[in-house]
Amino acid sequence: MSFDLLIKNGNVVLSDGVVKTSIGISKGKIAALGAPDAEAGQVIDAEGMTVLPGMIDVHVHFDEPGRTEWEGFETGSSMLAAGGCTTFFDMPLNGIPSTVTRPAFEEKVRIGENESHVDFALWGGLVPDHVDDLEGLSRAGAIGFKAFMSPSGNPEFESVDDLSLLAGMRRIASLGGILALHAESAPIVTFLQKEKEAQGLTGYDDYAESRPPVAEAEAVSRALMFGELTGCRLHFVHISTVEAVACIQRAKKKGQDVSLETCAHYLMYSHEDFRRLGVVGKCAPPLRSEDERKGLIDCLIRGDLDMVSSDHSPCEWKDKERDNLFQAWGGISGGQFTLLSVLEIAKARHLPLTRVAEWTAGAPAARFGLNDKGQIRIGADADLAIIRPDAPFRVEREKLFQKNKFSLYEGHEFPSSVAATINRGRVVFRNGKISQAAKGRWIRPSVLHPVR
Ligand code: ZN
């Protein structure tokens, strides 16, 4: 037997355990497990290394077209590949136009197919005046829809009021789609921000206090009730509090079709870090207290968090530099470090690598209908992240692949590092370099679940 690529002698993370074996790859698919002496066009010796399924990051903002000074598919996908990610879902904002119409969606597909180094899917947007566009977006292949329950910070992407949220949910349910929600209560955060700014209180504590945990819990609870009423499947993005996790778990136990993600930064950093590291740590919801951070890790360990994403939300440095923190761009640039963060937590808490694979690849693939991805098994896409488990990686500016070279993670040392990233059998990243020839493919959900 002869393969295009053979990865030899790695500790391979399968869904039910870790085995030392070799992976034979042909035509972009995993063709065999075992057979270390088979012939191959290219061989990678993974002795002593961990081989995980390539990460699926369900939440990034690449800002193209329209705001490519912030990010773009080329730089953004390079950054993800350098972090062991082989598939990403791009959000319907902060490019211009927002991805709320079929033509805008199709334009983004074209750009991504030309520029992305790894596979990708695209979210469509639910905004008040475009409920009638949802069907076209679904037919065009949107992986799901995203709405904001509080102002998005971006004038080109309006948040939903309760009426348009209900109407959008009803429509998305009829299309069999999933609605992803930024769940913070608009009344609570708007009211508190006004109160703070009226008193001239615009520092780190003020920003965090204007978006308290109750704002997340209120929005999550309301959305769950709306979801139950309309039959709409839900996915909560960047959940940051133990209370919101508990609300969602209660709904799941009652049988509601709902999933949630948290982001690596809520597991790795707290409000104290925000004060220490500055505006690079501004995001919404804000970084939480140390107790909340530890509680969220406990939720992860208990199995109450389905997946971990990056919510890579970059900008130029000038958009961060404001005396009034309310006016600085809110978004963490950290897409390169999700898998390394989860691996660090797993190592510290002695969690099995099979769970890392589930949080970063298996669960996203299952939830969003990517049948050929998310697991290392014969017949699946050969999407792999090869990790040096004992070679630390210190985050420095010159090692960042994103367009704007600043990140919350600067100065942090991860206990492990990414040796290589393989997307459908092509080596996209190896030894610190991106293969410019590697091109990703646009993917769409394989199954929809319409509610009648
Ligand atoms: Zn986001």
Task: Give an account of the 3D structure.
The protein is of the alpha/beta class and 452 residues long. It folds into two domains: 2-51 and 382-434, Urease, subunit C, domain 1, CATH 2.30.40.10; 55-367, Metal-dependent hydrolases (TIM Barrel, Alpha-Beta Barrel), CATH 3.20.20.140. 33% of the residues lie in helices and 23% in strands. The protein has helices at 73-82, 102-115, 134-140, 162-175, 186-198, 204-209, 213-230, 242-253, 264-268, 271-277, 290-302, 317-320, 338-348, 353-367; strands spanning 2-14, 17-26, 29-33, 39-45, 50-53, 55-60, 85-90, 119-122, 124-125, 145-148, 178-182, 233-236, 258-263, 307-309, 384-388, 393-394, 413-414, 417-423, 426-430, 433-434. Strands 1, 2, 3, 4, 5, 15, 18, 19 and 20 form a nine-stranded mixed β-sheet that branches. The protein has a six-stranded parallel β-sheet with strand order 9-10-11-12-13-14. Strand 1 (2-14) and strand 2 (17-26) form a beta hairpin. The protein is globular, with a radius of gyration of 21 Å. The chain starts with a strand and ends in an 18-residue tail after the last strand. Bound molecules: zinc ion (ZN). Zinc ion is lined by residues 59, 61, 91, 311, 313.
Question: Can I get a quick summary?
Answer:
The chain is of the alpha/beta class and 452 residues long. Helix content is 33%, strand content 23%.
How would the blueprint of this fold be written?
Blueprint: E1 2-14, E2 17-26, E3 29-33, E4 39-45, E5 50-53, E6 55-60, H1 73-82, E7 85-90, H2 102-115, E8 119-122, E9 124-125, H3 134-140, E10 145-148, H4 162-175, E11 178-182, H5 186-198, H6 204-209, H7 213-230, E12 233-236, H8 242-253, E13 258-263, H9 264-268, H10 271-277, H11 290-302, E14 307-309, H12 317-320, H13 338-348, H14 353-367, E15 384-388, E16 393-394, E17 413-414, E18 417-423, E19 426-430, E20 433-434
Parallel strand pairs: 1-4, 1-5, 6-7, 7-8, 9-10, 10-11, 11-12, 12-13, 13-14
Antiparallel strand pairs: 1-2, 2-3, 5-15, 15-18, 16-17, 18-19, 19-20
The structure holds zinc ion.
